[in-house]
Amino acid sequence: MNKKNSVFIATSLDGYIADKNGGVDWLHSIPNPDNDDMGYLEFTNSIDAIVMGRTTFETVCGFDVDWPYTKPVFVLSNTLHEIPQSYKGKAYLVKGKLTEILEEIYAKGLFRLYIDGGTTIRNFLKADLIDEMIITTIPVLLGGGIPLFTELPKSLDFECAAAKLFLGKVVQNRFVRRR
Description:
The chain is an alpha/beta fold. It has a single domain, classed as Dihydrofolate Reductase, subunit A (3-Layer(aba) Sandwich). Helix content is 18%, strand content 31%. It is built from 4 helices and 10 strands. The strands form 2 sheets. Strands 5-4-3-6-1-7-10-9 form an 8-stranded mixed beta sheet. Strand 9 and strand 10 form a beta hairpin. It is globular, with a radius of gyration of 16 Å. The mean pLDDT is 95.
């Protein structure tokens, strides 16, 4: 089976995934009367599991909605000691080096992974473990916040495999790692 680690995320025009207060309300700044998911369902249908960091997991748990995932969720954390009871069987705590964690997940027959959460994405990029990034750019300048990208130990080459326009204003690019 082909292993693939993919990112599906939205950023502001200036490259932030959250504003200065950690908020993401700006994601809804463009009217979306038909609730276009901009390819999210198609993307999640193509994956086997999700790998996210503790902060993203806690953020999702704080939403006033039912658990939004149908695939197994692996939560990376060195500080969380256990998954809350209400999420057991849906989310699984993993610790250690990224390569070891990936081998543990692959051993379960899960090869196409959705990598989610700013710190998690940045750490996967630092280890050169991202194969594909689908980045949806919301045309708003936040002027600061949590960036998607930070310094890397080496440059990583990607090529744009597709570009789409949603709602007449939102651009989504699919980048594939060139090795």
